[in-house]
Amino acid sequence: MSQQLAVGIDIGGTNTVFGIVDRRGNILCDGKMSTKAHEEVTTFLEELHGHLSKLIEQVGGAANIKGIGVGAPNGNYYTGNIEYAPNLKWKGIIPLASMLQDLFNIPTLLTNDANAAAIGEMTYGAARGIRDFIMITLGTGVGSGIVANGQLIYGHDGFAGELGHIIVIPGGRLHPGTGAHGSLESYASATGVTNTAIEFLQTRTDDSILRNYPAEEINSKVIFDAAQKGDVLALEVYAYTGKVLGEALANFVMFSSPEAIILFGGLTKAGDLIMKPVREHMEKNLLPIFQNKVKLLFSELKESDAAILGASALAWEMKD
Amino acid sequence: MSQQLAVGIDIGGTNTVFGIVDRRGNILCDGKMSTKAHEEVTTFLEELHGHLSKLIEQVGGAANIKGIGVGAPNGNYYTGNIEYAPNLKWKGIIPLASMLQDLFNIPTLLTNDANAAAIGEMTYGAARGIRDFIMITLGTGVGSGIVANGQLIYGHDGFAGELGHIIVIPGGRLHPGTGAHGSLESYASATGVTNTAIEFLQTRTDDSILRNYPAEEINSKVIFDAAQKGDVLALEVYAYTGKVLGEALANFVMFSSPEAIILFGGLTKAGDLIMKPVREHMEKNLLPIFQNKVKLLFSELKESDAAILGASALAWEMKD
């Protein structure tokens, strides 16, 4: 039984993870290496080639591998290039898919990490059997992948689905990375939650556990712990974040009318603290024809596995 | 040569237009009747059947007709139903496509009017050959149709693409029809332009031709005429409307990354008065990877023909 395995590679600004996956989403073997240690993509690929070649041998050689899927920041599905990724050291346009394909002689597809997450969820996770959904990744930043009619929406240039950069509060909080004011990522990311807490601490006078920390030590973990202890200010940070995110989700629903929105990443660990206001404000802002229809789901993939699984799922979409 | 013609029917709150169209978008014959004169859909269909049967005879009978396409408010492509259309007298769910199919014994598809406009533009107009675009209709209201990968996005329930109801200014102007605050339709429609002018007249003190009119006589035509004469306040109404619309379009681009946005309807008659600020504020709010890529186009269909053409184009999408 040949070609029943896929390679998944997720390239992050700090680290790269990779693994070999079967059709059911079992990771047979995997590994990790530094991305940022490599000033040049060529030495990065040399190291990756060394690691991955060993894993491929372990599973019986390249004849068993259907394809390589890569999730990477600013990854363009159509061209296979990483284009001007702000958080990578390799500047300009990197033809990563064709470089990998040449190295391993295995067909390779590439997309951005949030699109890969959406395909992973459709293949192995919460979106199995769902033809219309939106994946939102709530981590350091906010990423997204949009699926309609069972297909990922790449847009005319391969860059569709940048929902983290949609302006939700015109003239709102500055996003230092993009210069935009009021984008979703400025509120619904780990950084956003931290900035909301700092703003609340500055503009309000009520007591809070968070006042015991200097501003530079406030982060999403500290805020979560305070909220768990019933700290009112911390709870209201989540309520506010949930309101902004819920209002944004309502707008997204009126765009593509998905059956489900699937949430993934650090912020989802706050559970009902964030999900209750998200749901409330999403429903409140929907036209009646959309109300009480959209499922809000959490990812069903283990966070540690999701990046490899999502990338690997690209391989199953390849034509034989 | 049989089945080379299609019937297009556009049902509006006031009137219904219908016609027979060839594959190149020539309207061979057409007609018009009142919608609102009919309290019941049954008498509406009787009258429509009478008119259309004659037209179908004129073109050689039903054997020449590939299908009937219908554009209707709250039209659901999947079910063929009109569902709870606020501006029609027929309440609840009306299975219009199957009723027409039974009457004429011709296959019938139905969708909402803005989706029909998008398909019309793709078949006969400015979107020929474009696989990813967004159609925005700027009339009394704001409608939209979204095409990705060459397919109209209907969403899981058939109601995708309600971009007029996306909230662009949270807490902004009340939309009396929906109760929402700050939806695009409250600003970028004929009514929106009128309300912006009335607000400007109330909150500003500068001279304006528009001050010669009582508030109830201010409308988009009066504002356009004043702007044409160089009236500063009227010009700023367009600048403001264009800003709100441009910011909304930037958000839409970051969703589906279309090759083009096609604008249709009354507001587009203001030409550069509106298009210059639209383009400026769209570009300003896009991430760099999206800038200077998206074409802003006007519809290429004559406004009087577009409704029939758009609806008729549904018929060419039917499987043989």
Residues in helix, % of chain A: 25-40%
The quaternary organization reads as: homodimer
Low-confidence stretches of chain A: none
- Gap from first CA to last CA of chain A: 14 Å
Record the strand order, biggest sheet of chain A.
Answer: 3-2-1-4-7
Task: Give the overall form of chain A.
Answer: globular
Number of helices of chain A: 9
CATH architecture heading of the largest domain in chain A: 2-Layer Sandwich
**How does the major sheet of chain A shape up?**
5 strands, mixed
- Identify the biggest protein-protein contact and residues per side: A-B, 45 and 45 residues
Question: How much is the radius of gyration of chain A in Å?
Answer: 20 Å
Overall pLDDT score of chain A: 95
Domain count of chain A: the total is: 2
Overall strand count of chain A? 12
Q: Predict the CATH topology of the largest domain in chain A.
A: Nucleotidyltransferase, domain 5
Family (chains A, B): Belongs to the ROK (NagC/XylR) family.
Organism (chains A, B): Chitinophaga skermanii
GO molecular function, one term (chains A, B): kinase activity
Keywords (chains A, B): Kinase, Transferase
Please describe the topology of this protein.
Two copies of one chain form a homodimer.
Chain A: E1 5-11, E2 15-22, E3 27-34, H1 41-58, E4 65-71, E5 82-83, E6 93-94, H2 96-104, E7 108-111, H3 113-124, E8 133-138, E9 142-148, E10 151-152, H4 185-188, H5 190-203, H6 220-228, H7 232-256, E11 260-264, H8 272-284, E12 295-298, H9 303-316
Parallel strand pairs in A: 1-4, 4-7, 8-11, 11-12
Antiparallel strand pairs in A: 1-2, 2-3, 5-6, 8-9, 9-10
Keywords (chains A, B): Kinase, Transferase
GO molecular function, one term (chains A, B): kinase activity
Family (chains A, B): Belongs to the ROK (NagC/XylR) family.
